[in-house]
């Protein structure tokens, strides 16, 4: 088998695509950087986005894969966040219906649940109210109906369930398509596996930055007028690259893990929301022939790239699955694969408590022309970016139109969670030409969505392209 990291093109895009001066440099190709790139390029601003790894290979492909208002944030009275997120969810159902699908979520309630049935009903009503009654479903089910709708659910002490709607999304492909849509505008460029290092501000007010191609070792020094840092959970580490900024840590990073099991092992027709005794929430979400289970909350201090679930997190998820689905007999041998990501949670002022840490985003502007955006959610990436993009567009004496990004995405990926065509050389060629892979591993893992066990794609790539 060939080297998975083998380059598709031998020449570094730093040599062929990048001028020595860029109006706006965006660092970070997760959903937040992608959203900034799209909005700026739709407003005619020249911009380059770089990511140290493949696009959307970190947090933005490791979420619970929901576009949601966050029903549990109602408990913290985060009404603004829930309102905004529900409206964004309903917008993306229209803008990218191939990637975002509305689903009926069941929240089973037991005699000893922390949230009794009346509270669940009130919460679901409020949730629908905050969506301007645009959510597809709202209601409840009796014990008998719940047992009929949720195979293997624990019958003991079961009272019934609340029903509400949220959307499931292919998070990685949404990010990639937002970047691909931006590139339809001539003034946008995006390059993966390029890190931004040693940033200094010159007397003229421009930023000088050394870009390093992590795959070829080629370096290029560029200047830019605006520098946007959208490095998510890596932001505190990244800001140490700019010595002129006396950055104090703003994040309280928290790892969350998920497991995939086969649908044959837990054949749920709809997503189920489990509420364990510790007050946390675990989503069990059927996707095609698999079921996604997560998430956890574990403190992390270093090595944020490519994180994996710990043994304790796996045990926690399996334990709770068995608590709520006692007859399904799920054990660790049923796990097909797993993944983890770091929530870029912004500290509240005292920074002490993970649970109370803000889920809203924050924008910092430590120096003129330098913007740092952290926190927030996948669901609200479009509105998050507007806080920065509106300032930059207006600084070019142009009118800012917040509705420009309310148009459908123009380019589609070949594969997503809901559409998996048979592999062919035509499809691989389209992926190579449109979906910005730089290595064959990018195609295998993130463009063609091969699972660890899927040898077919690897063999195909080896035979046809290497
Ligand atoms: C377990 C979990 C579950 C979640 N579930 C949901 C959910 O269901 N719904 C929802 O709305 N939100 C959810 N979220 C939140 C959401 O996933 C994140 O808020 C969002 O993905 C963060 O995106 P980002 O672009 O800020 O970060 P990232 O996606 O991590 O992007 C940052 C990028 O910066 C790059 N980078 C770092 N350093 C450098 C450098 N020196 N040079 C160049 N590039 C660099 C990284 O490679 C990375 O690609 C969840 C988060 C977690 C962890």
From TrEMBL:
TM spans (from-to): none
Gene Ontology biological-process annotations: glycerol-3-phosphate catabolic process
Cofactor(s) this protein requires: FAD
Occurrences of domain FAD dependent oxidoreductase (ranges): 25-375
Coiled coil residues, start to end: none
One annotated GO molecular function: glycerol-3-phosphate dehydrogenase (quinone) activity
Record-linked Gene3D superfamilies: D-Amino Acid Oxidase, subunit A, domain 2, FAD/NAD(P)-binding domain
Entry keywords, A to Z: FAD, Flavoprotein, Oxidoreductase
Listed PANTHER family: GLYCEROL-3-PHOSPHATE DEHYDROGENASE (PTHR11985), GLYCEROL-3-PHOSPHATE DEHYDROGENASE, MITOCHONDRIAL (PTHR11985:SF15)
Family of the protein in this entry: Belongs to the FAD-dependent glycerol-3-phosphate dehydrogenase family.
Name listed for the protein in its UniProt record: FAD dependent oxidoreductase domain-containing protein
